[in-house]
Amino acid sequence: MQLALLLANAAGSLYMAGLCAFVHRVHYPLAAQVGPAEFQRYQALHMELTGLAVGPAMLLELAATIGLVLFRPAGVPLWMPWVGAALLALVWATTWFGVVPVHTELASGADPRLLSELVSKNLPRTLAWLARGGLALAMITAAWHAR
Predict the structure, then answer these.
(1) What is the pLDDT of residues 99-146, one digit of tens each?
(2) Most CB contacts within 10 A, which of 82, 99, 120, 131?
(3) Structurally, how many domains does the chain consist of?
(4) How far is it, in rounded angstroms, from Cα 102 to Cα 122?
(5) What is d(CA 31, CA 105) in angstroms, rounded to the nearest whole number?
(6) Cα separation of 17 and 98, whole Å?
(7) 147: pLDDT strictly greater than 90
(8) CA 3 – CA 131 distance, rounded (Å)
(9) 24: nearest Cα among 133, 130, 132
(10) Is 81 within 8 Å of 65 (Cβ atoms)?
(11) What burial letters (b/e) apply to 129-143, b meaning 16+ CB within 10 Å?
């Protein structure tokens, strides 16, 4: 079970780290290139399709993180699952209280100020997911060396 938790955590974290980095660096900046007439449809599709792409991975990551805190694998230092949980709390907080509200506002139409705000509010989330990805690999390494 502990190996499954480590692998599920790594899969969710690394998937989300890569996806969020791509969205931050490529997808969000490209949104500014969508014409005003098409923007509302683009934004509605973005929100719908992104939810399908991130929802299962975020839930997998959440479940694995809780599991690692409760059932820490041998060799994994106590602080690692807790730091992972804190980073995940930051991810969820910046998602629901930072990024999602801006997306909701953008559903009314393109706004360069809001697009810039979206990139700014997404940066902490991107960095937290990248850190979680590295931490997930470090936990696998620690457990591997302890066996």
Answers:
(1) 999 999 999 999 999 999 999 999 999 999 999 999 999 999 999 999
(2) 99
(3) 1
(4) 10
(5) 14
(6) 18
(7) no
(8) 20
(9) 130
(10) yes
(11) bbbbbebbebbbebb
